[in-house]
Prior knowledge:
single chain; 359 residues; elongated; Heat Shock Protein 90; alpha+beta; Globin-like; 5 strands
Amino acid sequence: MDSARPDGRAHRPADLIDEITARLDERLRAVRSVLLADTITRDEFHGQVAGILSVVLHDLGLDELGRGRDAALSGDATGRSRALSEIHPRSSLQAASLLFEVALPVLEIAAAGARGTIAETETTDVATTLNRRVFATVEAASIAYVDVMHGRIGKVQLEERRSLARELHDNVAQDLASAIMRLELSAQPGGDPDGHILDDALDLLKGSLLEVQYLAVELRQLVGDRPLTQALGEFIETAGLSELVRMSVAESLAEPVGQHREETFLIVREAVRNAVEHARASRIDISLTGEARGGARYLVATVRDDGVGFELANRRPYGMGLVGMRERAELIGAQLTLDSALGDGSTVTLRVPTSWGPA
């Protein structure tokens, strides 16, 4: 068990907080926590830790001022901030567990020093108080995070409905209107002596039917109980993309489960669709591999095309499709990156956590 400093300074609230924060940072650096990735996130995190510890010290009678109470109880604000910064709640849960581990022995020593000794019941009180305050804050932050992400996914779903409406109006409805005009013209006496207008109308109707079938496939295409690789393969086949799209899968690939798998499928499907509709690609490659990093394991899905590409500063070719992909990735704690250059194709890379734990 850790011991207090000989001069007793570690028993002062500010020194206790500094000591615990330093130990926590050391543990978080060992697991490459994103909470220490940049100055803004780190400072916000340190402020939250200081607030939690101040309240704990107050509850234990070690800090009569109870400094930082408001900061400790603002878990909802922290959750919203983490969502906007694309930091998944699992990072907060990891930090909470480590905070409990490093803070408990320090607080036990501080409590013993303040009272001259500490009974077993008091040790339990320290652990209970610390646990209650730490995870109350994490719970509030997680709920706020989920609220933000629900709002985002709602926007994605609304945009998907708008996109479907645009597809129906701009493509299907226009072609049907043109076909009707040609049919009416061909029905006029002498209006289509060679039958060319009627042929054009039939071509438009066939094209509209194919477009509706394509949209229907996309609307009902879900993974369900199937492996991700099977769902993607069936999508490629039913969408008529077998000659254009090639898929490679690493051996013994660990797939995401549940909603993570559904969202992974939808993101990859959207990346393929963007390459087909906007990139004018002659080849699209899907690669599914595994990756271990920072104590976590990931499925890495890569979609590459040899199309026209575009400058990253101008992402209009992907439009709202890219926005939807990013929102879906954030919802499952995945990382989405896009690389493209004018005339050199595009690459979309998605890293989806399949298992997690400290290194």
